[in-house]
TrEMBL record:
Gene3D superfamilies: Aldehyde oxidase/xanthine dehydrogenase, a/b hammerhead (3.90.1170.50), Aldehyde oxidase/xanthine dehydrogenase, molybdopterin binding domain (3.30.365.10). Its EC number is 1.2.99.2. This is Carbon monoxide dehydrogenase large chain (COdehydrogenase subunit L) (CO-DH L). SUPFAM superfamilies: CO dehydrogenase molybdoprotein N-domain-like (SSF54665), Molybdenum cofactor-binding domain (SSF56003). It is an enzyme of class 1 (oxidoreductase). Residues 16-134 form the Aldehyde oxidase/xanthine dehydrogenase a/b hammerhead domain. GO terms for molecular function: iron ion binding; oxidoreductase activity. The keyword Flavoprotein does not apply. Keywords: Molybdenum, Oxidoreductase, Plasmid.
Length: 787
């Protein structure tokens, strides 16, 4: 079954409307109360007075919570990654703002009522008096010497800093024949899963159990967070993750409003429900990207790279969320060399506070930014030396070995692959030379043709114990429990939690392959802390590499257990028993056999396990801690056409060649690539959460924030080349974020290729028709200016 494009078994319930999301969950015999939040309209202000009496008197209102009404035993949201900082302590994230608000959308009060309509009426009666304070909404404004301080006690907006340095950097730049330097902004985006964040909490005063249905990526970690913040025993908290309508990283953190819903249920001893509106999503859910880089790349006269140095800033928003620092420190910095052999490296990263919604992981989480920065620099260098973009990449690619990892200048160990082979395949499949000829001959007088190439590396499998200390993270292992029932059917329970990736299919394929039984005999379960083994969740391209490997090992161990039982039944030595497609037989005596179902029955209903010295039943739990990350790689080629008169851009073709190691289900891999590329094109051409310099979100709704539609996208051509990973028993590398990592810069490089005739070095994303129209107009008028 491994390597087969099996149709996803979970899709039937999604396509027929039978999926159950958090909003769909019903508690028999009771109607949950509804929570709504009052949020700050100001990016920075002092709360001088808040009056809730009128709201509390509205019929149907059960409670109005403010910071003053919260119990004193609550703890702050804990950091799971502790960044390097000189500050004695970083500011804690309040559950409700007390005295000062620090971003537009910060929760101030929570109304709990019998219906949403009643809660909304009550919200409008809460009176809050504000004293506006100076605010800062952009990185370059926040790092200025006269910038308003988001947290005055820190005396700076720099939350943390770290430098990664290796090799003779000064010597490299001293002897360089050419140095290119560019300031680049990786634009801020809003995640926008189809299902917004949603919570249903139910506290049982008799058992003291808090049960929470949660649209999350990390059920077990969410339970731990709730235990820590609420100061409540973890064994009295149960987190259930129903079907999840997408996440992309924004459902990885724990949020103040989500904790408040749980607290409200405990205080009121009644179920409480909350689902964020789309408007709230803009103002309260973590945004992604928003990194600013000022980098220099040194090379010799032939274009061979000598060194990379500079600075990267991450806008972390008003508060540092539990895992935000890892985005830049554990992902962007180490991955900046990308696919290239760079002998010297010296880059410093800073986390910067601003009066904006906190940022966090978003599909790729630091890797799209790193690849964007290095791939733009490579293209700028190629242009300056007048070398074909494909050729300059070929000259500088790292040589990867199929047998042992290749260490990069930043300390990563790429496991296997062949960048040059992938590049050559991509150039051939995309008809690169034909497009170049067409471009030189002039496609037409009406439009400009651009061809963009981008290579990427996708660091996956977060986080091996060997790298945990470097990341400031706990080791993120995974576990799986495989149970065979007496009839021979299998239940696979995993700690990773799927939200659209196809886990129910791919984990079942692994089990079916190892156990030699039909896919229909296997059920995969996850998402309930009461039944699933402990796991850290789904993020960081880790579910298949870490969780899938745990499933593989558990199935292998269960099979070994079954072989011992079969040997007892066949009156043979275990070493002589062979298993093939559902049957155990004695080597050389194929007529002596027992079926998998017969062995499972014997494990429960006979003396066989006792005679074999084994525990009765068939259940195994295995844990997997990878020795290294995995590194999927690829090269994507995009061809665009820009209308000279309107700036309208069309993506004419998009070809990707990717190495994800061993593909468990190639169809699902291609689906992941398609989704990621679509999001990457969205960032390149449409999306940007625009904050004013003083912290006002200028496009806080889908009326103003543009998302890509199917009509904006070409038919993607994706091709897989498999170089098995050396870091796990399955040989998989993970590809869930690859398209979002490479897509933006493949499109951006194509845009700049189209505009080369105007001498434009760099334009920041998104490349809207207005931006391109203005640049073309200035270029034709003989002006040159970067944006």
């Amino acid at each position: 079954m491994i390597g087969q494009s099996v149709k996803r078994v979970e899709d039937f319930r999604f396509l027929t409307g039978q999926a159950c999301y958090t909003r769909d969950v019903q508690i028999p015999g009771t109607a949950p109360l509804q929570a709504l939040f009052l949020r700050s309209p100001y990016p920075a202000a002092r709360i001088t007075r808040i009056l809730t009496e009128q709201a509390a008197r509205v019929p149907g209102v059960v409670a109005v919570l403010t910071a003053a009404a919260l119990p004193g035993h609550l703890r702050p949201i804990p950091l799971i990654r502790k960044p390097p900082t000189s500050h004695h302590a970083l500011p804690v994230i309040p559950l409700l703002a007390d005295q000062v608000v620090r971003y537009q959308g910060e929760p101030i009060a929570c109304v709990v009522a019998t219906t949403e309509a009643v809660a909304q009426d009550a919200l409008e009666l809460i009176q809050v008096e504000y004293e506006p304070l100076p605010a800062v909404g952009q990185i370059d404004a926040a790092i200025g010497s006269d910038a308003p301080l988001v947290h005055p006690d820190l005396e700076t907006n720099i939350a943390f800093s770290a430098t990664l340095r290796n090799g003779p950097v000064d010597d490299a730049f001293g002897k360089a024949a050419v140095v290119v330097r560019q300031r680049m902004h990786n634009n801020r985006v809003v995640p926008h899963p189809l299902e917004p964040r949603s919570v249903l909490a139910s506290y049982d005063r008799e058992t003291r159990q808090l049960t929470v249905w949660f649209s999350t990526q990390r059920p077990h970690h969410t339970r731990w967070f709730l235990s820590q913040i609420l100061d409540y025993p973890e064994n009295l908290i149960r987190v259930i993750m129903p079907d999840v309508g997408g996440a992309f990283g924004c459902k990885e953190p724990i949020y103040p409003d989500e904790v408040l819903v749980c607290l409200a249920s405990m205080l009121l001893q009644r179920p409480v429900r909350w689902t964020e509106s789309r408007s709230e999503h803009f103002l309260s859910t973590t945004h992604g990207r928003d990194q600013l880089a000022d980098l220099e790349l040194a090379a010799d006269a032939d274009g061979r790279l000598l060194g990379l140095r500079g600075t990267v800033w991450l806008n972390i928003g008003a508060y540092l969320y539990p895992n935000t620092s890892g985005v830049v420190l554990a992902r962007t910095l180490p991955l900046l060399p990308g696919a290239y052999d760079i002998p010297a490296f010296d880059v410093t990263a800073h986390g910067v506070f601003t009066n904006t919604v906190p940022t966090g992981p978003y599909r790729g989480a630091g890797r799209p930014e790193a690849i964007y920065f290095i791939e733009r620099l490579i293209d700028i260098l190629a242009s300056k030396l007048n070398i074909d973009p494909a050729e300059i990449r070929r000259r500088n690619f790292l040589e990867l070995s199929p047998e042992k990892p290749t260490r990069t200048i930043t300390g990563l160990s790429y496991d296997s692959g062949n960048f040059r082979q992938i590049l050559d395949t991509a150039l051939e499949l995309s008809s690169y030379r034909e497009h170049r000829l067409r471009q030189r001959n002039g496609d037409s007088e009406e439009r400009l043709i651009g061809i963009g190439i981008a290579a990427y590396v996708e660091l996956g499998g977060a986080t091996p114990s060997t790298a945990a200390a470097l990341e400031g993270s706990p080791p993120l292992w995974e576990s799986a429990t495989v149970t065979a029932d007496p009839t021979g059917s299998i239940v696979v329970r995993v700690g990773t939690a799927g939200h659209g990736q196809g886990h129910e299919t791919t984990f079942a394929q692994i089990a079916a392959s190892v156990l030699g039984i039909p896919l229909s005999s296997i059920r995969v379960e996850f998402g309930d802390t009461a039944t699933a083994p402990f796991g850290f969740g789904t993020f960081g391209t880790r579910s298949m590499t870490v969780g899938g490997s745990a499933v593989y090992l558990a199935c292998q161990q269960l099979l070994q257990h079954a072989i011992k039982l079969a040997a007892e039944m066949l009156e043979a030595n275990s070493s002589d028993v062979v298993y093939d497609r559902g049957y155990f037989y004695v080597r050389g005596l194929e007529d002596r056999s027992v079926s998998f179902q017969e062995v499972c029955h014997a494990a429960y209903f006979s003396l066989v396990p006792f005679r074999a010295g084994l525990q009765p039943g068939l259940q195994v739990t295995a844990t997997y801690d990878p020795p290294n990350y995995t590194f999927a790689t690829g090269v994507h080629v995009a061809v665009v056409a820009i209308d000279r008169h309107t700036g309208q851009l069309d993506v004419l073709s998009y070809v990707g060649v990717d190495d994800c190691g061993r593909a468990i289900n190639p169809m699902i891999v291609e689906g992941q690539l398609h989704g990621g590329i679509a999001q990457g094109i969205g960032q390149a051409l449409f999306e940007h959460a625009r904050y004013s310099r003083d912290g006002i979100l200028m496009n806080p709704s889908l009326l103003d924030y543009a998302l890509p539609r199917s009509t904006h996208l070409p038919t993607f051509e994706t091709h897989l080349i498999e170089f098995p990973s050396l870091s796990n028993p399955l040989g998989v590398k993970g590809i869930g974020e690859g398209g979002a990592i490479v897509g933006p810069v493949a499109i951006t490089n194509a845009v700049h290729d189209a505009l080369r005739c105007f001498g434009i070095t760099h334009l920041n994303m998104p490349h809207t028709p207005e931006q391109l129209w203005r640049v073309i107009g200035r270029g034709e008028a003989g002006e040159r200016r970067e944006e």
